[in-house]
Amino acid sequence: MEDILALAKKRADEAEVYKVTAEDTSVQFETNRLKHIQSNQSTRMALRVVKQGKTGYATATGPGGQSLVDMAVETARFGMKAAFEFPGATSYPPIEVYDAAIEAVSLEEMNKIGEQMVATLLRHTPGLICHAGVSKDVTSVSITNSRGGQANYRGTVFSLSVWANLINGTDMLFVGDGQSSCHPILEANTVTEAVLQQLELAKNQAAVATRSMPVVFTPQGVASALISPLMAAFNGKTVLQGASPVGGKLGQMVFDRKLWLWDDPTIPYRPTSGPCDDEGVASQRTPLVEGGVVANFLYDLQTAALAHTNSTGNGHRSRGGLPAPSPSAFVIAPGSTGFDEMVHDIKEGLVIEELMGAEQGNILGGDFSGNVLLGYKVENGKIVGRVKDTMVSGNVYQLLKQISAIGSDTRWVGGSVSTPSLYFPGVSVAAKS
Amino acid sequence: MKDIEAIGHDLASTIKRYGADYIEVRLEESQTSHITYRGKELESIDRATATGGNVRALVKGGWGFVSFNELDNLPDRIERAIKQAQFVGHEESRLSPLEPVVDRVTLEADKHPEDIPLATKKELLDEYRDIIWRTPGLQTSGIGYGDSRKKVVFLNSLGSYIVQERADVTLRLTAVAAKDGEVQQTGLSLGNRGDFNQMKNLHQPVAEMAQRAVELLSAPQIKGGEYTVVLDPVLAGVFVHEAFGHLSEADFVYENKRMCQIMTLGKEFGSTELNIVDGAAVPGLRGSFKYDDEGVPATKTYLIREGKLVGRLHSRETAARMKEGATGNARAINYHYPPIVRMTNTYIEPKSTSFADMITDIKEGVYVKNWYGGTTSMEMFTFSAGEAYMIRQGKIAELLRPVVLTGNVFTTLKNIDAIGNDLEMNQGGGCGKGGQSPLPVSNGSPHIRIRHCLVGGG
Questions:
Q1: Alpha carbon A299 to chain centroid, angstroms
Q2: Which residue, B190, B216, B242, sits at the end of a domain?
Q3: Residues 222-281, chain A: which have Cβ within 8 Å of B?
Q4: N or C: which terminal CB in chain A sees fewer CB atoms within 10 Å?
């Protein structure tokens, strides 16, 4: 890395080298049995240069070398104006994301957890077709730049997932869940309990009318329908472009006063945590909504400089691209209402566990509209069965203005979102007659 | 570092000696460049090179897969893949027969987007940016251009040795309009097989896209419910991909008895007018190739013929287990992943109805155009239209806010009651499955009409 930095400094005014190496292994179950074992090794180098005030960028697999420098310098002729400076030497918060125990987990143990998940589900519902995965990975990140900035850390991630389908005639039921941590997860109970509950609640089918009705989004439901628009809206880049519905509203009450939302890469042993972001800026917890009031937006170095503020440590590189602001881990604060209490409160309504395709509409505007892949009908305070051929739509900003209750059942969903159930008084539902 | 062809050549002579039922190696080299704009400014420009490979081994029905981008120690990696496969395998290995092929597929001289100077690419994108910003009322815009060139060396323990090159160019433009706290956006997605020149002369559609974003701010939202819906070729192509294409991928079917019953060959899925085809053998489309990532030659596969299910998409393993022929549909997005059953170029064959005849007797319906997104759970699908209009008394009427269509695959295919005469292929999309996204595919159709389609609104 140091040799590339030295080569780059000769050809450009400033330079930054980012290197990530990863090793991962996964065991995959298909149709109730072990089918694949996969392991991957990768090394990727990224070089960012600033030359005559403009940014150039190139990436390469393997050790890089002279051609990496040539490519980065070539793009710098056309690149965007660099408004930022690379961070100098920084002392980072000690946020642990590495557990050596992961490296020691054997294929036999991973296989056993997978078998356990599949067997538990099959005992409950014998006709199920289960797919499952158990994976572990070890990543190491190094950043060095021409202003003396240096960051190095290692991280581990262990993940479990299981999803299953049950087919009757042409009726298909899909259930599933997952869990991840920087520690090994050697007990699959949390995941299988959640799926067993889905299977229980979906046993019967129920019909639903086309109209507005009370709806509870479970943590998975919140993540599948409501989070993407918020992630776009609180992105400093969207704000800078004037395309965020909350952009001009810092300090204003935009949401229900019960809503608290923050971004948090500082939680120990979470796969979304780390001492710094992908630009070497120290990690911090950033409040986004405080009691319904818009508190902050998420920035990387460049976007922060353009907005005349500081990076919030949210410069992330997706798919090897240039750093850009994006959330590390979105956390919605739990409330005090139990899930059952919310359901008891509903005379006629829905519980949404998974909304399919909700993120394909006008996300920036906050609109969502999706097919209920897994959801239940509530009648007189009780879940009576699963609904089908039903579409749920609305606008995130309108819904989050008036929240009936926030659940106490907070959990991580999909690794990067932590949320409780959210209960809304009226959501538009369209059902096939 | 040694060239991947030289490494492949050395391996070809030793790969048969290992103790596995089947082994294949894929080695890859790629060069890509991206240019993005956000708003009026160029946001990023980058170039990347990647080299890597993988080994896949089959032992007693179990698969081991090892990917890497350090190309030394390949014999160790082969041993590791075999060990993993041995750990898994407890049954009989079954793969459909394959004639070993030695072949080389090179790029045509005019399909080298990496040779076009960055300055030329940027100049064209600047023009589109300027056109977008001539529209009053815009809040922001986005342009994402990408090109790539890739060489893949494939060899297996049967003696196949195939070198294939491909190039791709993609362009995605978006316009965002905002007013009184409301935001609307429109987009345009294009793609082709490495011909940068095809991305020129888009000035008119780019201007229209930007204009529509502003118009959407004052457009009404549709009342959710069931409508007669007419789909343009782009959206009908997404519909056939989402609603039926994924269902015909045999990896979802081959070990699932109940799914096999649903997908029994000969079963009626639509009217006798309905023919659905998938195939990579048509040259020049985004989903086209000569050999898939298992070295199987591309084919043209009828999935539905005259309304009846007649075929499905296979890898060598799913074909052998279902005792059907391989179709050349095993694809991997890159060396990091094993090949899985994927679509290539999927389309509804054209029939005789003109667009005018299709809408003439619709009293109240919806005309939906352009791709925005789509997904499926096999039984249920949802897809969204970039552009939607009411149809009133047989005429196209007011512009609507974007709509999402959803339904049950089995009933919806039967509800297609008119198929147009104007087949067009959409090259701008990509497909995601099993974490591998976006895989280059194309979808197409003529205009089609669907009765009783559920449309989501506000």
A1: 17
A2: B216
A3: 237, 241-243, 245
A4: C
Q: What pLDDT does A433 receive?
A: 64
Show the DSSP H helices in B325-428 as ranges: 355-360, 409-414
pLDDT confidence tier of residue A98, bands split at 50, 70 and 90: very high
Once rounded to an integer, what is the mean pLDDT over residues A40-66? 93
From A336's Cα to the closest Cα of chain B, the distance in A is 30
> Are B40 and B179 in a shared domain?
yes
Query: Cβ contacts (< 8 Å) between A78 and chain B: which residues?
Result: 35, 42, 45, 118-119, 122
CATH code where residue A56 lies: 3.30.2290.10
- Residue A199, domain member (yes or no): no
pTM (2 decimals)?
A: 0.93
pLDDT digits (tens, 9 = 90+) for A320-371: 889 999 999 999 999 999 999 999 999 999 999 999 877 776 788 898 888 8
- Sort strands B161-179 and B102-105 into parallel, antiparallel or unpaired: parallel
Asked if A432 lies within 8 A of B88 by C-beta distance, the reply is: no
* Residue B419: alpha-carbon gap to chain centroid: 22
A364 touches chain B (CB under 8 A): yes
Min Cα separation B177/chain A (Å): 8
Q: Is residue B131 over pLDDT 90?
A: yes
DSSP type of residue B335: T
pLDDT tens per residue across span B31-72? 999 999 989 999 999 999 999 999 999 999 999 999 999 998
Chain B environment of A365 (Cβ under 8 Å)? 182-185
Residues B355 and B451 reside in one and the same domain? yes
Per the document, the length of chain A is: 433
Task: Render pLDDT for B304-349 as a digit per residue (tens, 0 to 9).
Answer: 999 999 999 999 999 999 999 999 999 999 999 999 999 999 999 9
* Same domain as A33, residue A168: yes
**One domain for residues A107 and A235:** no
Instruction: Evaluate whether residue A427 is within a structural domain.
Output: yes
C-alpha of B426 from chain center? 10
Q: Would you call A309 an interface residue with chain B, using a CB distance cutoff of 8 Å?
A: no
Give dist(CA B149, CA A55) in Å, integer: 24
Residues B105 and B250 in one domain: no
Residue A95 sits in the same domain as residue A73: yes
Handedness of CA B275, B278, B281, B287 (dihedral sign): positive
Range of the domain at B441: 225-456
β-bridge pairing B41-59 and A54-61: parallel
Check whether residue B257 and residue B179 sit in a common domain.
no
- Cα A131 to chain center, whole Å? 22
Distance CA B46, CA A322 (A): 8
Residue B118: its chain A contacts at CB < 8 A?
74-75, 77-78
User: Is B382–A370 a contact, with Cβ atoms under 8 angstroms apart?
Assistant: yes
**Are both B89 and B141 inside the same structural domain?**
yes
For residues A144 and A271, state if they share a domain: no
pLDDT of residue B419: 98
Q: Are residues B23 and B49 in the same domain?
A: yes
- Last residue of a domain, which of B216, B247, B267? B216
In a domain, A19, yes or no: yes
Is-contact A342 A218, C-beta < 8 A?
no
- Specify the number of domains making up chain B: 2
Is A147 in the same domain as A259?
Answer: no
- Quick check: B446 pLDDT over 60? yes
pLDDT at residue B458 greater than cutoff 50: no
Output the six-digit token pair for B43.
Answer: 């946001």
Query: Three-state secondary structure along A175-206?
Result: EEEEEEECCCCCCCHHHHHHHHHHHHHCCCEC
**Is B201 in the same domain as B246?**
no
Q: Are residues B229 and B209 in the same domain?
A: no
pLDDT of residue A118: 98
